[in-house]
Design brief:
Number of helices: 15
CATH class of the largest domain: Alpha Beta
Distance between the termini: 46 Å
Strand content: 15-25%
Order of helices and strands: HEHHEHEHEHEEHHEHEHEHEHEHEHH
Shape: globular
Largest sheet: 6 strands, parallel
CATH topology of the largest domain: Rossmann fold
Strand order of the largest sheet: 3-2-1-4-5-6
Number of domains: 2
CATH architecture of the largest domain: 3-Layer(aba) Sandwich
Radius of gyration: 21 Å
Bound molecules: iron/sulfur cluster
CATH superfamily of the largest domain: Glycogen Phosphorylase B
Length: 334
């Protein structure tokens, strides 16, 4: 290890969304492998830092403050730390402005939102879907000599596994567990119909599984409705776990069925057989990373449109039927 590498102080501004943050894992691992002695600080939403901390790819997490005054104080503290480089993963103007305020000597990100004047290295962004998003992030790290390495399963701490067992232990006694996630924060054009999720849950229960319906607290009503419609053998856990506990819970499941959402990325990352249902977006751009991920997508000619809602009837989603998804679950758990 050269003295130059040992001296590096690297700030990484992580994405704000769970799925995007998990697609940054190849970059985090590549950077750690290239610069094992560098001091790496990750900046991002506190729940994402809590989830990723178990991997030890960064030395310190800096939770992204909620208000402007706290952000100013954090920028001053980071300026005193004197970062040699900032890797700016979000495409926003504000994330580049913060890296500048934090005094990073090199500010590496994609040219977007007229922010290039604040970057020292403004990379040209490929057309959406041409490269997987994880590779777009890796290209930023390549500026610091990081090269792709084998991606391990997402590490989950023992106490999270204990908490997950305590949450579902009795409900799942003697049965396999399937996790389904019927919502997507992006909007309806990424959501397979809730009644089809309920029908799938009934098929999974008939096959001998307990079904856990997962989502955020804001998605609790939909998750409860799907669990109620599925009947005995299904229950909602929406909003009842931290991200590490949800990761442990999904890791213990036989199979997960998700929209193109953060939970699909989480299930893929922990190595659980994961069936992902695609609507308006591009699987080439955002497929969940993991050894056992299967995509179901029947794109009409209008796909991908990347819209949040659809004016012509969500054909991309209604083309996916329950029997096909149930069959994919069976095939992945044989
Ligand atoms: S326009 Fe086409 S791809 Fe987009 S949501 Fe509607 S059916 Fe799906």
């Amino acid at each position: 290890m050269s003295a130059e590498h040992a001296a590096l102080r690297i700030l990484i501004r992580l994405p704000n969304w769970l799925g995007d943050a998990l697609m940054a894992r190849p970059l985090l691992h590549a950077l750690r492998a290239a610069h094992p002695d560098a001091e790496v600080r990750a900046l991002g939403p506190a729940p994402l830092l809590e989830l990723l901390a178990a991997e030890r790819t960064f030395d310190r997490g800096e939770p992204w403050p909620g208000d402007g005054r706290e952000r100013g104080a954090l920028a001053r503290a980071l300026r005193a730390w004197r970062p040699d480089a900032a890797l700016i993963l979000p495409f926003s103007f504000s994330s580049a402005r913060f890296a500048l305020a934090a005094g990073a000597s090199r500010r590496i990100g994609y040219a977007h939102e007229a922010r290039s004047f604040m970057l020292t290295e403004a990379l040209r962004r490929p057309p959406r879907g041409e490269l997987h998003l994880s590779r777009e992030y890796l290209a930023l790290g390549a500026r610091l000599g990081a090269r792709e390495v084998a991606l391990p399963k997402l590490a989950v701490r023992a106490e999270a596994h204990d908490a997950a067992r305590a949450l579902v232990g009795e409900a799942a006694a003697g049965r396999g567990v399937a996790v389904i996630a019927p919502r997507s924060a992006y909007g309806p054009a990424r959501q397979w119909p809730a009644e089809r999720f309920a029908a799938l849950a009934r098929a999974l229960i008939a096959g001998g599984r307990t079904v856990l319906v997962a989502g955020t607290g804001a998605e609790a009503d939909t998750c409860a409705a799907v669990a109620d419609a599925a009947g005995e053998g299904a229950r909602s856990i929406a909003g009842r776990t931290t991200l590490p506990v949800l990761a442990a819970l999904v890791a213990a499941a036989d199979v997960a069925v998700c929209n193109d959402s953060g939970l699909a990325h989480l299930a893929g990352a922990v190595g659980t057989p994961t069936v992902t249902l695609y609507g308006s977006t591009s699987s080439a751009w955002t497929t969940a990373l993991g050894p056992r991920v299967r995509i179901i997508q029947h794109p009409p000619v209008c796909s991908p449109c990347f819209r949040r809602t659809c004016a012509i009837g969500y054909r991309c989603l209604t083309a996916i039927d329950v029997a096909e998804v149930a069959g994919a679950c069976r095939a992945m758990t044989r």
